[in-house]
Design goal:
Blueprint: E1 3-6, H1 11-14, E2 22-26, E3 29-30, H2 34-41, E4 45-51, E5 57-63, E6 72-74, H3 110-116, E7 119-120, H4 127-135, E8 141-144, H5 150-157, H6 165-174, E9 179-185, H7 193-200, E10 206-211, H8 227-248, E11 253-255, H9 257-263, H10 285-295, E12 309-313, H11 318-328, E13 332-336, H12 354-361, E14 368-372, H13 389-396, E15 399-403, H14 407-415
Length: 417
């Protein structure tokens, strides 16, 4: 890896390393990517080989404290390892042709799982990949399991290799790699979710069960999670949660908020979700948001006087956001946006698009519009359908404020002038 910058406070600067030099190996092991550097930068005794711009290779014996850093920077662009499965529920395969370009990348990369919390299947990993995960202590990882029955899993994910996910997870657990697992529930496919939860209890730290998301572009005849099905899943999982709470000290298996919304049942309390390890899966998001609003010191109770403010949200989040807005001020308008782009069965805020917002809000916003940040890309300027935030502002002719999915910041967004 070519060094792009050397920090003056790091060991690399003391050694005379410069931008343009190439990091070759640590203890004779070739550098594969930035994760090797991060691992060895946390070690205390090793040999680092560097090829200088002049072409000379030099070995440096490094002895340092754990807190000391080499102080080197690189171009940190990892090309994602792509998924070779053809899961029946894959959201990428359910996209229309005009979505944001980055959405079409089907990654299945353990490095992204460790660094960004992306879910991986393990089906595309080789023996040396597992060995590297253990050697570099890449923990925690996030794994899409769906079923512990190999036949069911293979049918759902359509992969060719004969692999046992339980054996893979046991290898990771035995080597002290923490795994947070996921089951995307597809009625009619993996109805063995209770059995899977029990079999995962010795090899995973937590499990999230998430209802399958089905867009109008799906090629498979998938059954959506209805109110009846959602109530059954909740009834099946609640006894397991209470049992694990007694044995493990936490509930271990958690249901996505969408199950409770679909079932028209009360979302569990904040304390139900432990460390919120699965919040990126939509698990405990509503409970956390409510608690953050309660804990917020931004208003002292009573009705706040606010300017013309409109909040756009999804079908799933509408009741929660409406209740929060009403608790702050009766002047806030909350509008439920139907997902016409992907289809009305897709009901979460993170999958709403610019064109649905533009069409359904036109003429309805007279003041400031608040949008949750989860609707946009990481930079906060492009929606899933590739419409820019600037274009939405132009179409609506109003001020648009993007708010983090955080209760206190939502309160401040409503109250700010």
């Amino acid at each position: 890896m070519v060094i792009t910058k050397v920090d003056k406070d790091g060991i690399g600067f003391e050694l005379g390393l410069k931008a343009g030099d190439t990091l070759v190996s640590f203890d004779g092991r070739p550098i594969l990517d930035i994760l090797d550097y991060y691992f060895w930068d946390g070690e205390t005794d090793f040999v680092m080989t560097v090829e200088h711009v002049s072409g000379e290779q030099v070995k440096y014996d490094i002895e340092k404290d754990v807190s000391e850093t080499l102080g080197l920077e690189f171009d940190n662009d990892l090309t994602p390892m792509t998924c070779r499965n053809n899961c029946v529920f894959c959201f990428v395969d359910q996209l229309p042709k005009d979505s944001r370009p980055t959405l079409y990348v089907k990654d299945d990369d353990y490095r992204m799982s460790f660094s960004m919390g992306n879910y991986i299947t393990l089906t595309n990993l080789k023996k040396e990949d597992f060995e590297r995960i253990v050697r570099l202590k890449l923990s925690p990882l996030y794994v899409s399991v769906h079923s512990t029955d190999n036949t069911i899993r293979q049918h759902m994910m359509q992969y060719r290799r004969n692999v046992s996910v339980i054996k893979q997870l046991k290898y990771l657990a035995d080597n002290e790699i923490t795994v947070h697992a996921q089951i995307v529930y597809c009625p009619g496919y993996n109805d063995d979710y209770v059995k899977s939860v029990r079999e995962l209890s010795d090899v995973a730290e937590t499990i999230a069960i998430v209802p399958v998301g089905i867009t109008k572009f799906s090629k498979y005849n998938l059954t959506p999670v209805s109110e009846t099905i959602a109530r059954k899943v909740i009834a099946d999982i609640e006894p397991l949660q209470e049992g694990y709470l007694k044995v493990k000290g936490d509930r271990f298996v958690y249901l996505a908020d969408e199950f409770y919304v679909k079932a028209h049942m009360r979302i569990p309390a904040y304390e139900h979700y432990g460390n919120f390890d699965q919040i990126e899966n939509g698990v405990g998001l509503i409970a956390k948001l409510k608690q953050e609003v309660t804990d917020s010191n931004s208003f002292a109770g009573g009705e706040a006087q606010t300017a013309n403010i409109t909040i756009a949200t999804s079908v799933s989040a509408y009741d929660t956001i409406k209740a929060i807005a009403d608790s702050i001020s009766g002047n806030v308008i909350v509008i439920k946006i139907i997902n016409n782009y992907f289809g009305p069965s897709v009901t979460v805020a993170g999958l709403l698009t610019g064109q649905d917002l533009a069409e359904q809000l036109l003429g309805k916003v007279s003041g400031k519009l608040l949008l949750p940040k989860c609707m946009l890309n990481e930079c906060g300027d492009v929606f899933l359908d590739n419409m820019t935030l600037t274009e939405l502002k132009r179409r609506l002719g109003c001020e648009v404020v993007v708010v983090d999915v955080d209760g206190e910041k939502l309160v401040k967004g409503i109250l700010s002038k």
